[in-house]
């Protein structure tokens, strides 16, 4: 037997599987963690890609807007390096009073001060002011800058546009719609209007009604991804002064800062993501056992779809996907859960085309995957009511899930692929 101990919420789930039936353990390639984050960040800020050093860009007396991700991206661990970025700006003549963070929620809910302190650290929250940009928050103000070649309005938060200098931050990982996260996503959806977010994401559907999701809108693809192309046009309109993106290794440790031009530096970072997280597997298995990698990656089903999407890529059609996610915030966002009131996928798609939302698209994508593989969710028993509405079977232990998988597959010799960090790792079947 092979023993597994996989992250689940803020704890772990342990289980054993027959060694000879485990085809692949889908883990990222090893990559060394940065020993000294302060030194590594300073080196990156002084030697960026495609721009002068950050200290040569900012000038005393200027205001600096630092766009940051929200609590759903807590794995970025801003608290570990944001103080160093502030110190660097201070040394370049920009005092804390002239710096502010702009949290890029996209269409997510606003987070609490307690969540901001958890994400950014007490030092940062106490040093600089924090502003909020959410497409669903009426207090967020956006300025119209034009329209993209795809017909999407460019509407960006005024606070970012009015600052003398704009710095984008984030963490680069695979993204099931945009190909990769971070980079231009700090602008759209990050600090864009709800209308812009909706219309951009509508590009993720096939042209014809009933065609479902666009097969080119997938993780790791930006070569023929119309959603990404449109986001790049928003990035060009914002034309941020500088970018600071982090990449974490498979152990969740910072291993690289990519800095400089908002597009060129980010594109360099996506290559390292491929190197670490594009994982070749020998073949798809009858059953996939996957976790997101713990909290906050499994904070809710909406975020958990990243895990589910990668898990399906490692599963044979008609097989079983077992997802282990604690889902502390199971009902968020409420709109996502509400979409499952429309059970028929054609009707769901028609409704989506009538008023596109990201949660609606994710619900359609998930429904399509439910038709490919049987899904079983290991989670807390109190999550069952919501999961019943979504249409995913709930169990409370991995042992129960494995027993159900055996009954569904119909034999006791079926194969497994195990994914300890399925939110990040994308399985690629070896050719």
UniProtKB/TrEMBL annotation:
Q: Which organism is it from?
A: Veillonella magna
What Gene3D superfamilies does this protein map onto?
3.40.50.11440, 3.90.226.30
Query: What protein name does the entry list?
Result: Nickel-dependent lactate racemase
According to the entry, every stretch annotated as the Lactate racemase C-terminal domain falls at 283-413
Q: Which InterPro entries match?
A: LarA-like, LarA-like_C, LarA-like_N, LarA_C, Ni_dep_LarA
Pfam families given for it? Answer: Lar_N (PF09861), LarA_C (PF21113)
Span of domain LarA-like N-terminal: 8-207
């Amino acid at each position: 037997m092979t023993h597994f101990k996989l992250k689940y919420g803020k704890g772990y789930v342990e289980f054993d599987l027959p060694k000879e039936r485990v085809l692949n353990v889908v883990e990222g390639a090893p990559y060394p963690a940065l020993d000294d984050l302060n030194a590594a960040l300073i080196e990156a800020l002084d030697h960026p890609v495609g721009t002068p050093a950050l200290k040569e860009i900012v000038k005393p007396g200027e205001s600096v807007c630092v766009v940051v991700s929200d609590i759903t991206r807590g794995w970025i661990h801003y608290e570990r390096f944001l103080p160093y970025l502030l110190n660097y700006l201070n040394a370049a003549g920009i005092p804390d009073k002239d710096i502010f963070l702009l949290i890029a929620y996209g269409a997510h809910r606003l987070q609490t001060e307690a969540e901001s302190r958890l994400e950014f650290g007490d030092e940062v929250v106490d040093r600089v002011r924090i502003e909020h940009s959410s497409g669903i928050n009426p207090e967020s103000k956006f300025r119209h800058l034009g329209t993209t070649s795809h017909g999407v309005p460019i509407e960006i938060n005024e606070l970012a546009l009015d600052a003398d200098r704009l710095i984008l931050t984030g963490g680069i990982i695979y993204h099931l719609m945009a190909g990769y996260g971070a980079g231009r996503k700090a602008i759209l959806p990050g600090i864009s209007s709800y209308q812009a977010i909706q219309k951009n994401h509508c590009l993720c559907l096939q042209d014809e009604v009933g065609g479902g999701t666009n097969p080119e809108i997938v993780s790791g693809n930006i070569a023929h991804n119309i959603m990404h192309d449109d986001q790049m046009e928003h990035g060009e309109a914002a034309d941020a002064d500088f970018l600071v993106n982090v990449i974490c290794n498979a152990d969740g440790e910072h291993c690289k800062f990519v800095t400089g031009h908002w597009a060129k530096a980010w594109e360099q970072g996506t290559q390292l993501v491929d190197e670490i997280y594009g994982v070749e597997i020998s073949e798809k298995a009858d059953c996939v056992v996957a976790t997101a990698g713990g909290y906050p990656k499994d904070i809710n089903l909406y975020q958990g779809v990243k895990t589910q999407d990668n898990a399906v890529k490692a599963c044979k059609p008609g097989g079983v996907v077992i997802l282990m996610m604690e889902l502390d915030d199971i009902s968020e966002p409420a709109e996502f859960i509400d979409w499952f009131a429309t059970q028929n996928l054609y009707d769901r798609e028609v409704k989506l085309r009538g008023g596109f939302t990201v949660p609606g698209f994710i619900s359609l994508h998930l429904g399509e995957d439910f038709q490919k593989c049987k899904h079983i969710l290991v989670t807390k028993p109190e999550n069952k009511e919501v999961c019943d509405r979504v249409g995913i079977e709930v169990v409370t232990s991995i042992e129960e899930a494995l027993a159900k998988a055996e009954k569904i597959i119909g034999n006791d010799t079926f194969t497994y692929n195990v994914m300890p960090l399925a939110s990040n790792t994308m399985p690629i079947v070896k050719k």
